[in-house]
Amino acid sequence: MEKQLEKTYNPKKVEDRIYDFWMKGNYFHAEVNPEKKPFTIMMPPPNITAQLHIGHALDCTLQDILARFKRMKGYETLWLPGTDHAAIATEAKIVEAMAKEGIKKEDLGREKFLERAWKWNETYGGRIVDQQKKMGSSCDWERARFTMDDVCSKAVKRVFVNLYQKGLIYKGERIINWCPYCKTSISDAEVEYEEQKGYFWHIKYPVKGSDEFVEIATTRPETLLGDTAVAVNPDDERYKHLVGKTLILPLVGREIPVVADSYVDIEFGTGCVKITPAHDPNDFEVGKRHDLPVINVFNDDATINEKGGRYEGLDRYEARKQIVSDLEKEGLLVNIKEHVHNVGSCYRCHNTVEPWASRQWFVKMEELAKPAIDAVRNEDIRFIPKRMDKIYYNWMENIKDWCISRQLWWGHRIPAYYCPQCGEMVVSENEVSSCHKCGCSMVQDEDTLDTWFSSALWTFSTLGWPDSTRELEYFHPTDVLVTGYDILFFWVARMIFSSLEHTGEIPFKTVFYHGLVRDSQGRKMSKSLGNGVDPMEIIDQYGADTLRLALVMGATPGNDMRYSDEKIISCRNFANKLWNAARYVLMNLEGHDNIKNELPEKLTTEDKWIISKYNNVVKEMSDNMDKFELGMAVQKVYDFIWDVYCDWYIELTKPRLNKEGEEADNARRVLVYILSNTLKLLHPFMPFITEEIWQTLPHEGESIMISEFPKYSQKLCYAKEEEEFERVMMAIKAVRAVRNEMNVPPSKKASLYIETSHKKDFENSVSFLEKLASADEVHIGDRYEIEGAVQVVSEGAKILIPMSQLIDREKELSRLEKERKASQKDIDFLFGKLSNEGFVAKAPQKVIEMEREKLAKAEEKLSKIIESIKALED
């Protein structure tokens, strides 16, 4: 490690070297250690298709902050990384790449396709890992897992078989969500709903053998092709005479019955509901009650299938147009009314999903959900922020059975085997080659499992379950899950019930939710808006520490945060400020090898002030960290470094450092002690720059990241001295403020007459008043009569400054008069412009607002100038 710091901080030269140093030191690795308390975080595994986006960067930063903090606090800290096979997303990427070669996956066959998928994983799967390392992630890379590696796959098979044997996994026909683009079923949690403008098409269904008809309304006329009944409420007097009669299905000619079912709301619409059991979950249940046929009219790409008659082959939306047109031609279209309704789309590809009846594998959720609800309600698991509890309860208490089968090839293949000869089915962890009943060859189920099925096991499968490993016993349950609130349903809830069911333990003690990263205007980042941010570009330009600090500054649990270029620049400036402060300290250590990183016995008032301030920051920021208020924690360290250490204490030490001997050495020791320990406070947030600086200071140990985190000490609490010195500081700030208002340069010295009952405090600080308040003389007493003096009041003191020493009264009045005239001229011009009806009528509203802001500022400036003139004339 470097013993000197370059003139300017260059993250490109530092960060890769520092990360390599940490990796060689094996500082990220955790082992079972009975001598230490464990702290475990499981990284939410990013998709192998992913490149690090700003949301990942935030996620990584928050987890790394907690891991580094706990590691320095003495915990055996395991932050276990990994990647997710992301079945739908990965298969889509591979199919897309193959399409460019003119190949379909069916042309290759399953085995050849999977060979390609594994090669794709080898090529691209590690990309996001390298990017996470660029962020400074202190993961235990030796323990990295992949959701389809042998360890995780073993757990997936065991869980499936266990749940099946308990009757909690079953195969049956139900309404599922089908994505016609991804060409697979997806779970309820993977459907995103948004309000869209649509229509109600009112259609006549003729009653067989009469001139009568019933009127129904639908938002999806194309599903008419699969209607197998019309339902009415049994208590609806309007339609009692029709129950049991037959209708003629428009355009199709199929005869369908009128059934009575309490599902129908008498007050809604016409009171007649078309029943399409294959394409609506409520209709499916009605169909089961009345033993209605289930007619699926869609192909897997949402084109109409052969059951759609003349509409076969049409896309669903083209079929809709044609059907509406044909209904109108036949006089069966009553009217069309605008209607706003919720439409579900696939969370991956954002195409509208189709509900349809399909034979799939499901997990029974009612029994599994109850203990998972209790775990949060009993506070065995804590959600931060707590308001997430309600969202969780609402979803879990209304949860439906989970569709876990996917019509994909990439993923965990369902461990169910069928005999094509006798129909026997066997569910087994091990491959079943022949039927135990008839001896014929068995065929494995073609479907794969929902990606979230394997991800739900992440906290324990990664530690070796179902085997009883030392790691599982020591590191599980894990301590914290850091995740975005947007995957509460996909992942968090499923992890809770899976861990409770299979290990008898909660998966984690705390779930720390963070929000989304939005742009400076509060908009969600997206390609269409062009407001996305590439973290790698920010790191390349400003360094990882700057990005990390910008992401966490101001962040609060569960709330979205705003990203801006200005914030990045501000955090870069902070890094430079810290670097320059460290260079100043090192410069003053040259030739003083005897300086140790410990406090001297003799401390001045200003030493005790900075030590006490530092001690308070240790306590306050540690409390914030324990409450997961990471943004507040780093803000306190930031303010301490910038405002207290750099802007005040360094300046306060300069007079002593110009001397020789013990007094100067004591100042050096305090400078080193405070800087070194403050670097430790900042290290979890800005690991690279803190390591680089710490290595150049007197220290013990190999790395800051395995050094002990500072502790609050009552011995370092100097409340009395802190209060005394703050009183002097307040006086200096007040003098500076009034001089600044009067445009008096720091080089112009003036006498200070301080009236105070705290004489000793000010007498001990005369040198600071002279240096920092631009005083050539300092008088301290009970009362002074100074004619024509500027009066400054601060806490515990009144300061008088002779006006004649600050300014030439006549010259200042002349200058202010010129400024007054100039300001009045600006006001007259702007007022005239805004009074011009032609300008106001033609100019854009934004321009008008800008001119109004200019006028307000000009009027405010004039008001201050007039106040200054009056003060001089009095």
Structure description:
With 874 residues, this protein is of the alpha/beta class. It is 45% helix and 17% strand. The strands form ten sheets. A four-stranded antiparallel beta sheet has the order 6-5-14-16. Strands 10-11-9-12 form a four-stranded mixed beta sheet, with helices on one face. It has a four-stranded mixed beta sheet with strand order 27-26-29-28. It is globular and about 115 Å long.
- The radius of gyration is 36 Å
- Estimated share of beta-strand residues: 15-25%
Overall structural class, as computed from helix and strand content, comes to alpha/beta
Which descriptor suits the 3D outline?
A: globular
Q: What distance lies between the first and last C-alpha atoms, to the nearest angstrom?
A: 64 Å
Average predicted local confidence, pLDDT? 91
Number of strands: 29
Largest sheet entry:
4 strands, antiparallel
Strand order of the largest sheet: 6-5-14-16
Helix percent reads: 40-55%
Number of helices: 29
- Low-confidence segments, given as residue ranges, are none
